Structures are given as structure tokens and as C-alpha cells.
């Protein structure tokens, strides 16, 4: 099934929750209401004609005015794929976890939480995954400023090139 | 005889444990030899490669992609090149695509040789490791001749590859393939069909097909569970349409479908299939340029794309967002090891501690690819 047909089916089932369908791109996508994401994903997985049995990729993007969470879905039985997006405010972004729908979301949502600060409710283990537990801030946000030290360990290193330039002066 | 009192212990394994394939840590809750649970703790090799991409520009990110998965860096190179080409609509010359496939398939053989060798080492057999690394060393020599590096290749560019095949390289490569096939048989006789190997791997941590898909396992791990899916054949990219090859599938002939032995045998069988692709590619390679003309200040139009590449550790998904400037807005890599690692906590329940090592080795987990 083509992506456009999949989005049409989703829109027919959830007329008010599909915000926008963007098709004039290499990878067309549908923007959906964050409150309905778990229901829409459940529908996509369970509908026999769609059968999106795999959450292939889940990632977050910070657009400075909003944060988007992107779901790349794939069906091994029908061999088609779809892209869903939700838009969230930058202050305390949170939405429902899709871990009950696909187990692979567990680690990917932890990664988005860790690097972009999006909280997922209903997630079984919402902890940081890559960064240390006590790391300040969300590293992949565009306004993140790296602290100069962490527990007394410097995070910056003097550049040897700058030092040579200063010696010449 | 009264029953012995037992209690649960919490053990730490790693981060510098020799059999955790890089820097990985597990917190193991166990009562005796059988684990209740092994909780993976990752992030020791997190170098924020996705953040670096936002700072260095499209061409400049190519060497960093090597570090995403240094055991099979050709695939990360290729995926990054493909993502940029898809965003900007660059056409790669045919010879360039062939060079990519040749380099990548050699890299797959090298990576699988390392995996099967390490499998031997992890279950306590030193000899297979030395045999496998001897063969891998010859591929490293071939690739070094091709691009000057043995591990972090930086061979590909946006629009093709950096260098054409050196004079006489094709014959050396074909000679190596002749040499490889008997070696695979020898390796099977030495290790794969050895009674100890089979008893140690068969029926360990079997993963059914539905579960494998649900946890987003990819590549050889997915195919070991019997799911007939290979990105090279089913979503063909580059010039894989031109080649005739088989996709080995796990059948559970050693006990359970998707067990450690099935996953191990997937790698052995893919060695031969990669050699088959390589032989065809080396015979069919057309003449012509290897690199398309790409502007130095590469600025794809605003947009986004996802590319999927079948790396040695399976379907690698790159999601790249461009805002029309010379720096990518966001790069995200979903790697095979990340998905496999997310499954270990579930698979570890009720497994022996010694089998945890087998599980990690059979899933072919590479720590830098998890942490990026």
C-alpha cells in the first residue's frame, strides 16, 4: 500500500486527530494529535489491511519553536511503510508512550527522553539511557550549552593550535 | 536433607569485561547460576555523534560516520552518502556504486569473520578466533590498498567513492574470494559443526519471528528467526538489483528457531553469499568515473529523508533533516545493536550467566553502535 493510502485510512478512522498530511516530499508524512498517538498506533498495528508490526525508527527533532517526535513504521507482512509525526511544545513536552504497542519503543523513547527531554507516560522505565543520570539539560536541544565541567572533570580541552598562535604573538 | 537457603545476589558485569564486546555493563540479579534478570547499562561510549553532525557540515561528517560502527564502517559511510544524495538529488556514477558495493561486501565478510571468531572466544575456544582473524587480516590489507585505512575507512563521498580501484586490485580481490570458500568449509569443520559448539549454542535464547519483529531486530538476527527480509533484496538500493544471491534463513535445525546457533550460522552462510555478490560485482564492474561532481559547499534543499541500508549488523535507518543550510539540522541513526541490546533484559530471564555471554555474542552487539 502506498503511504498516501495509509494516511487516508488513518484520516477516515481519526478525522479530527490527523492535523496535516504532507505528500510533496521524498518521504510523505502525517502529523497527528499527540493525545491520540497511542490510539492511532494501536489502530495501525491491529488493522489487518495495515498491520504495521514494526516500529522501525523513533526519533525526536528540536525545531526551536517546537519539538517533533517522528515514528517510522513498517509492516513486514505487507512491506509498506509510513511516517507519523507529533508536534509538542518545548516547555515540558510529554505524550503517551507507544511501548504497549511495540516493545522496540522502550529504548528509543528512553533515548528521546535522554537527549531531548520528552517525557513519555505509560513507559515502563523512563530513565536516561546514554547520558549519566545526573547530567544537566537535554543535549540535543538547540539551546543546550555544555557545562564546562562534570564532577570536577573538565569537558573542554585547550586547543594546541590556539596555544601555538598565542606563542607567536 | 534440609533444603539449602538461597538468596538473590546483585552482580556487576563490565564495563571492562572481556566478553562484553566493547564497553558494556550489566547489572545481573541472580540466585545461583540462573539469572533472574540482566539489566544492560549502556552509554559508556556515547560520543554524541548525532550532535557532532549538526556542527560539522555534510562533507565533514563522513569520517565521523566511521565511528558509529567501526567494525563495518563502509555501511555507515554508504548510508550517510545515500541520505545526502537523496536529499539533494545527486546521481552516483555506476562505477561508483559498484565500488561501494564491492567495498561494503568485503567489509561484511570482515565483520562476520570477526563475529564468528569472537563467538568461539566467548565460549572458550581460542583457535577459531585466530583462524578468523587471519582471514580478516587479508581483507584489511585489500581495503587498505583501496582507501588507505584498515578500520575507519572514510572511503565514500557524497556522490560516489573517493578513489577508484587501484591497478591490479581486482585480480587480488578475485584471488582472495577463491581462497575464502575452502576456508569457510575448514572453519565449519573446525568449529561450527563441532559438538561442543553446537551443544553450547543450540536452544539458547531462542527468539520467535513475531517477537523479533516487535523488538525491531534486524539483519541476520531477524533472519535467524525465520523472517524473510533483507533490505538489499526487498528495498534494493545502490546496484544490488544486478546481482543474484540468496538470503539464508534460520530454520531451527539445531533445536529451536532463532536460537544462538541459528544466529551464528546466519553469519557463516552470509560469508558465502557476500563472496557470490563480490564475484559478480568484480566481473561486471563498468568503466567510467567513480565520483559525481558535488559542490564543496553542499546545501541540500530543506526537507527530510530516511534511508535504510543492510549493514553487517542489519537494517540501519538514518533519518536526516535538512533546513537548507550547509549543516544538517538533525541526524538520527537507528542501529541494529541498539535494538538487539534493548531485547537482552527480556531474553536474560531464566538464562544461565554463562549463556548471557553467548547471547551477547550471537546478537553481534557492538558497543559504539549502541551508544553512538
What's the β-strand tally of chain B?
Answer: 8
Q: Bin the helical content of chain B.
A: 40-55%
Overall pLDDT level of chain B: 87
Instruction: Specify the CATH homologous superfamily of chain B.
Output: Cytochrome-c3 Hydrogenase, chain B
**Can you say what the CATH homologous superfamily of chain A is?**
NADH:ubiquinone oxidoreductase Nqo5 subunit
Q: Whole-number radius of gyration of chain A?
A: 20 Å
Query: What string gives the helices and strands of chain A in order?
Result: HEEHEEEEHEEEH
- Count of alpha/pi helices of chain A: 4
Tell me which oligomeric state these chains represent: heterodimer
Total E-strand runs of chain A? 9
Question: Strands of the biggest beta sheet of chain A: in what spatial order?
Answer: 1-2-5-4-3
Tell the overall outline of chain A.
Answer: elongated
Strand content of chain A: 25-35%
The CATH architecture of chain A comes to: 2-Layer Sandwich
Largest interface, by Cβ-Cβ below 8 angstroms: which chains and how many residues each?
A-B, 31 and 37 residues
Structural class of chain A: alpha/beta
Describe the structure.
The complex is a heterodimer of chains A (169) and B (372). Helices cover 25% and strands 27% of the residues of chain A. By secondary structure, chain A is of the alpha/beta class. Chain A has a single domain, classed as Beta Polymerase, domain 2 (2-Layer Sandwich). In chain A, strands 1-2-5-4-3 form a 5-stranded mixed beta sheet, covered by helices on one side. The radius of gyration of chain A is 20 Å and the shape is elongated. The mean pLDDT of chain A is 84. Chain B has one domain: Cytochrome-c3 Hydrogenase, chain B, CATH 1.10.645.10. Chain B is built from 14 helices and 8 strands. In chain B, the strands form 3 sheets. Chain B has a 3-stranded antiparallel beta sheet. A 3-stranded antiparallel beta sheet of chain B has the order 6-7-8. In chain B, helix 3 runs antiparallel to helix 4, helix 4 packs antiparallel against helix 5 and helix 4 packs antiparallel against helix 11. The termini of chain B are far apart. The model of chain B has no long low-confidence stretch (mean pLDDT 87). The interface between A and B is medium-sized, with 31 and 37 residues.
Amino acid at each position: 500500500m502506498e503511504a498516501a493510502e495509509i494516511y487516508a485510512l488513518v484520516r477516515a478512522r481519526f478525522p479530527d486527530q490527523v492535523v496535516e498530511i504532507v505528500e510533496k516530499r521524498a518521504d510523505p508524512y502525517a502529523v497527528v494529535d499527540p493525545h491520540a498517538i497511542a490510539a492511532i498506533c494501536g489502530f495501525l498495528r491491529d488493522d489487518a489491511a495495515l498491520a504495521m508490526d514494526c516500529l522501525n525508527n523513533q526519533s525526536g527533532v528540536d525545531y526551536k519553536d517546537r519539538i517533533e517526535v517522528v515514528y517510522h513504521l513498517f509492516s513486514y507482512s505487507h512491506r509498506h511503510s509510513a511516517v507519523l509525526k507529533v508536534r509538542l511544545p518545548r516547555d515540558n513536552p510529554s505524550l503517551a508512550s507507544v511501548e504497549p504497542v511495540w516493545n522496540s519503543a522502550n529504548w528509543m523513547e528512553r533515548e528521546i527522553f535522554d537527549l531531548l527531554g520528552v517525557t513519555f507516560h505509560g513507559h515502563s522505565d523512563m530513565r536516561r539511557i546514554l547520558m549519566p543520570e545526573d547530567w544537566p539539560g537535554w543535549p540535543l536541544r538547540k539551546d543546550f550549552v555544555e557545562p564546562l565541567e562534570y564532577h570536577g572533570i573538565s569537558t573542554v580541552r585547550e586547543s594546541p593550535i590556539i596555544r601555538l598562535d598565542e606563542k607567536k604573538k | 536433607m534440609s533444603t539449602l537457603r538461597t538468596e538473590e545476589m546483585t552482580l556487576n558485569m563490565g564495563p571492562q569485561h572481556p566478553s562484553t564486546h566493547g564497553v558494556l555493563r550489566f547489572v545481573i540479579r541472580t540466585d545461583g547460576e540462573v539469572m533472574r534478570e540482566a539489566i544492560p547499562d549502556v552509554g559508556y561510549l556515547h560520543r554524541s555523534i548525532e550532535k557532532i553532525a549538526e556542527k560539522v557540515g555534510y562533507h565533514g561528517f563522513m569520517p565521523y560516520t566511521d565511528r558509529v560502527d567501526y567494525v563495518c564502517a563502509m555501511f555507515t559511510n554508504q548510508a550517510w552518502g545515500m541520505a545526502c544524495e537523496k536529499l539533494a538529488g545527486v546521481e552516483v556514477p555506476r562505477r561508483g556504486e559498484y565500488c561501494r558495493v564491492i567495498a561494503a561486501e568485503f567489509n561484511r565478510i570482515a565483520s562476520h569473520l570477526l563475529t564468528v571468531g569472537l563467538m568461539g572466544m566467548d565460549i572458550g575456544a581460542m583457535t577459531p578466533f585466530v583462524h578468523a582473524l587471519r582471514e580478516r587480516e587479508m581483507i584489511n590489507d585489500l581495503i587498505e590498498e583501496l582507501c588507505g585505512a584498515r578500520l575507519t575507512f572514510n572511503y565514500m563521498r557524497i556522490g560516489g567513492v573517493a578513489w577508484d580501484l587501484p591497478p591490479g586490485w581486482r585480480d587480488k580481490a578475485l584471488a582472495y574470494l577463491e581462497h575464502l570458500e575452502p576456508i569457510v568449509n575448514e572453519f565449519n569443520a573446525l568449529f561450527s559443526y563441532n559438538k561442543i559448539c553446537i551443544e553450547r549454542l543450540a536452544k539458547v535464547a531462542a527468539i520467535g519471528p513475531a517477537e523479533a519483529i516487535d523488538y525491531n531486530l534486524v539483519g541476520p538476527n531477524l533472519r535467524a528467526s525465520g523472517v524473510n527480509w533483507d533490505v538489499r533484496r526487498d528495498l534494493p538500493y545502490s546496484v544490488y538489483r544486478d546481482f543474484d544471491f540468496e538470503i539464508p534463513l534460520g530454520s531451527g535445525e539445531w533445536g529451536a528457531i532463532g536460537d544462538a546457533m541459528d544466529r551464528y550460522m546466519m553469519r557463516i552462510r552470509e560469508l558465502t553469499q557476500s563472496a557470490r555478490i563480490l564475484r559478480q560485482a568484480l566481473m561486471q564492474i563498468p568503466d567510467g568515473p567513480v565520483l559525481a561532481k558535488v559542490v564543496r559547499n553542499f546545501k541540500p534543499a530543506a526537507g527530510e529523508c530516511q534511508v535504510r541500508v543492510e549493514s553487517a549488523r542489519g537494517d540501519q535507518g538514518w533519518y536526516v533533516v535538512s533546513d537548507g543550510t550547509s549543516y544538517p539540522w538533525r541526524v538520527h541513526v537507528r542501529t541494529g545493536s541498539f535494538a538487539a541490546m534493548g531485547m537482552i533484559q527480556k531474553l536474560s530471564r531464566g538464562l544461565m550467566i554463562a549463556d548471557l555471554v553467548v547471547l551477547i555474542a550471537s546478537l553481534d552487539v557492538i558497543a559504539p553502535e549502541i551508544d553512538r
